[in-house]
What we know:
This protein has helices at residues 6-24, 29-54, 80-103, 110-128, 133-151, 158-176, 179-182, 190-198, 202-226; strands at 58-64, 70-75.
Amino acid sequence: MFAITGRSSGRWFWLAVAVSLAVSVTPWATPLLYPFKVFTTWAHECGHALMAVLVGGRVTAITIAPDTSGVTHSVLPSGRVPRALVASSGYMSAAVVGCLLLAAPRMERRAHAVLLGVGVFMLLTLVFWIRNVFGMVAVLAWGVALVTIARLKGMGDAPRFVLSLLAIQVALNAVYDIRILFQIDRGPSDAATMAQLFLLPSWFWAAAWMMASVAMLAATLRASRLR
């Protein structure tokens, strides 16, 4: 049984918000926040991969580039629906991960379990899916760091702060990254794939994903924080 500890978790959450805002206005914002963008890319690509498996396909490789772009290579069943589900799952999965991370610190001891679970899952994806050197190094570093923080004793509420900081960055990136789709008129993208499948323009799908992500994150904040 987990007990709700709103005051304690709220303190660490707002401290993480303050740190995020402070870092974002410094000249070192890009390098300091870079690891979180890589983590968000991993969540995005794993969303594609998990959906590919759920629709009966298989994942051949995930690559994560130093510029924080990523590609999931998969073999899918024929038909529009499987392709559409996989194409939509990337940006939506990043938002879902942000929501889960935002909600997790509200429960006592949940931060340790979530950090450990995410870290272990990252290491599993390293074994089964990640297939380029940069991606392997980045996922290994994140996986080991999260598992280590989760298992260290005597850290008090530090795991809650780490989880809150990670949640905020993933949530922001999940929405912010979608803006790129509005700037791409031609070329490969998840929105372009949806446009090819269902004829509606790519900006329509980008707008739909952005509105859904914002709604999910706002609902999570309302339920787990503002209350």
